[in-house]
Structures are given as structure tokens and as C-alpha cells.
Amino acid sequence: MPLQTAARASIGKCMSSIQFYNAVQRDLLVPWKPVVSEIFKTRNSLFVGDRGVLILEPRVGIYENVGEIDFESLFGNIMLKKNISSETINCKCCQASDTLVPELRYHICNRRIGIVPESLKLLLNKRHQYSKLLKTTTNKSKLEIYKQRKAVLKWILVTSFGYLGFNNAKFGRIDAHMSVCAFARKILLDAIHIAEKEGFAVLHGIVDSIWIQKKRSHKKRLYITWN
Ligand SMILES: [Zn+2]
User: Fold this and answer.
1) Mean pLDDT, all residues of the chain
2) Using CA atoms, how far apart are residues 206 and 70, in angstroms rounded to an integer?
3) What domain range is 84 assigned to?
4) Cβ–Cβ under 8 Å, residues 109 and 87
5) Is there a domain that residue 15 lies in?
6) CATH number at residue 134
7) Is 210 within the bounds of a domain?
8) What is the pLDDT of residues 17-61, one digit of tens each?
9) How far is the centre of ligand 1, averaged over its atoms, from the C-alpha of 19 (Å)?
10) Which of the listed residues 105, 136, 161, 166 has the most CB atoms within 10 Å of its CB?
11) How far is the CA of 95 from the centre of ligand 1 (A)?
12) How many angstroms separate the alpha carbon of residue 164 from the centre of ligand 1?
């Protein structure tokens, strides 16, 4: 999208434009209207799958030695690393795929990279580069510019997750949106278990962050990564 058009466009429009660009590069037709329908769900599968993210009720009280662990661009990275897009969830080409969405048990394509993850690469790479620059730059005016660019990229990434569940998005699908939430719940739950195993008490958790308190642990740092 030309800069003059992008300056007057919404975040969703800019993000869709990246997806259309990638679709055109692959010789794919961009649907005039979204045509991918929702996967049929029983009452039970809807109950299991349609639950959003994980939130732990905070333990009320005053605590010392508390730290926050926050995943970098968790939702964007889930879409990228797990290849989540409207056309990759329960695809026809790899029905025997062993890459499954937790709880929902949808399979994910392992032959083609989806349009959504393909389009996220640019945003995630740029955001990661700005995070690195923020740690190494000392020039104050540049720091401010990097900070703002990083924030803009964050909101584009947030939008791209929202668009997966938006019924007017050309490459969106509610099942893909639910799959991202299912992975996010599992990752946060795994992080909680790791922190507890390492001797920390988990005081609160929400979406992609946990607040932990040092109890019997002697560790100065705790890193949690996921694949
Ligand atoms: Zn496939």
C-alpha cells in the first residue's frame, strides 16, 4: 500500500494489504467476499474451544520479591510458528497431520505456509529488531522513534489476531482464532507449571504474562521459552 494511502488507512486495512500482497505473490486470488465457513461444532466442542485465554484470579495481598514474565509477541508468534491461518486449519491436503491444536484437536497443514503467518513474518521480525535496537541505542531521539515504531507494530500484531476471528476478513476464520487461544492457554499453563517447579509461587496470570514470587528458589533469573 502506498505510504499516502497507508497514512489514512486503519490498522486492519494496512494489515490486510500485506496479506493481499502475499496472496498476489503466490498467484492466489483474493476472495471478493470471505467464503470460508466455520467448522461444525457440537455443543461440547464449542464449550471446550470457545473460551478465550487463560486468566488466573490474582491472590489478594501485599507481596515482595515479585517479578513479571511476559512473552514477546505471543499471539503473533503462535500464528507464525504454529502456521495458523484460515486455510491451514483442518486443511484437505494433510488430514493425517500430527500437528494438532490442543483441546480442539484440529489438524494444521504441514505442506504450505498460510497467508496469515507469511504476512506476520515482516511485522514480527521488525518488532524484534526494534526491541534489540532499544537495548543498544543510547541516542535519545532515536530511542523515542524506535519505541513508537515498536508500539505501532504491536497494535498491528494485535489487530492481526483479532482479524482471524473477524467474519469480514478475507483470510480469517473463527476456528483459526480459537486455535490461537487454545495454544495461548496451553503455553501460559506450561509456563505456570515451570515456574512452580522452579520454586516460584504464581500470584497472577493473564493472557501472556505471569507474576511470580520468589519463595524457596535461589535463582536470580528465570527464562521460559516455548516451541
Ligand atoms: Zn495441508
Assistant:
1) 90
2) 10
3) 9-44+75-184
4) yes
5) yes
6) 3.90.1600
7) no
8) 999 999 999 999 888 887 777 888 999 988 888 888 999 999 899
9) 19
10) 161
11) 7
12) 18
Render pLDDT for 174-221 as a digit per residue (tens, 0 to 9).
Answer: 999 999 999 999 999 999 999 999 889 999 999 999 999 987 666 777
Distance in Å, CA 68 to ligand 1 centroid: 38
> What separation in Å is there between the alpha carbon of 55 and the centre of ligand 1?
32
pLDDT-above-90 percentage for the chain: 59
CA 28 to ligand 1 centroid distance, Å? 16
Q: Domain count of the chain?
A: 1
Please give the grid coordinates belonging to residue 153: 507494530
Q: From its phi and psi, is residue 90 left (phi > 0), alpha (psi between -120 and 50) or beta?
A: left
- Tell how far the Cα of 112 is from the centroid of ligand 1, in angstroms: 6
Can you give the pLDDT at residue 221? 73
Q: Is residue 214 part of a domain?
A: no
CA of 194 to the centre of ligand 1 (A): 33
Which three cell numbers, joined as nine digits, stand for 97?
A: 497431520
Q: Is the pLDDT of residue 114 over 70?
A: yes
- Taking the C-alpha atoms of residue 164 and residue 85, their distance in angstroms, rounded to an integer, is 8
Tracing cell 496479506 back to the chain, one arrives at 19
Residue 195 lies in a domain: no
Residue 88 C-alpha to ligand 1 middle, in angstroms? Answer: 6
